[in-house]
Amino acid sequence: MLQSEISAFIRAHTTVDAPPLCPEITLHLASALMPIWEAREAMGSATPPPYWATAWAGGQALARYVLDHRRLVLHKRVLDFGSGSGVCAIAAAKAGAAKVQAAELDPFGLRAIAMNAALNTVIVHTISIDMTVVTRCNWDVVLAGDLWYERLFAERATAWLRNLATNGCIVLLGDMRRNYFPKQGIEELARYSVATPVEIEREPISTGVVWRMLPDGMRAAVS
After folding, report:
1. How many helices (H) and strands (E) does the chain have?
2. What is the dihedral sign for C-alpha 99, 114, 154, 72?
3. Which portions of the chain are predicted below pLDDT 70?
4. How far apart are CA 145 and CA 96, in angstroms?
5. Which of 39, 82, 112, 206 is close enough to 196 for a disulfide, judged by CB 3.0 to 4.6 Å?
6. Exposure of 61 by Cβ count < 10 A (0-12 exposed, 13-18 middle, 19+ buried)?
């Protein structure tokens, strides 16, 4: 699809709104889950699910933490890995990061990130490759929210993020402690109550937790 067609799809199936935990950020978000998923399925199986159209609890918590602890990213090179809507990347840019990159494989997600960055008048550079094959660390801080849904990808992502932490990068994670989230080698930093649509998380309030990934060899357990 052309970029103009992707942009038109995003505008047709979302509204501009602020995620509950980050009122200073505006995003193109789906007000209801089923219509946009049905529209995506009508395009065929090659179109990825529209994860970018929702501000997930872990990502919101991580973005909130970055906004409240700006020194973590101030004047730093930041990567938002598996960026989705770009909420964490935008938070880092607003917090004063020197350069922000957002890695996302879904072309609809990439376009949504660019559109959301424009809404917030910040600069976010998008990357559309599988970052887990990148061996060189070009960032000071890496943010990763809501990645641990599928076992194989979760294992690969965790190993890659662990390697970054071991090589001196600050790696911050945001999640709800889903099944494939790492159980050790992480340090809890904060937790937030996040209002979430019941059609997504089945509960009106979810708990988004922020952790720091510890270097290999440091095995603090999840509390």
Report:
1. 7, 9
2. positive
3. 45-46, 198-201, 217-223
4. 20
5. 206
6. buried
Q: What proportions of the chain, in percent to the nearest 5, are helix, strand and coil?
A: 35, 25, 40
Helices within the chain (DSSP H only): 3-13, 33-42, 57-68, 87-94, 107-119, 151-166, 198-201
Residue 166 DSSP label: H
Per the structure block, which two tokens stand in for 129?
Answer: 């490759």
Q: Please name the amino acid found at residue 150.
A: E
Distance CA 71, CA 179 (A): 31
pTM more than 0.85: yes
End-to-end CA distance of the chain: 45
CB 109 within 8 A of CB 89: no
Which pair of tokens denotes residue 49?
């699910």
DSSP 6: H
List, in order of start, the domains of the chain with CATH numbers: 3-213 (3.40.50.150)
CB 105 within 8 A of CB 47: no
Task: Give the pLDDT confidence score for residue 223 in this predicted structure.
Answer: 46
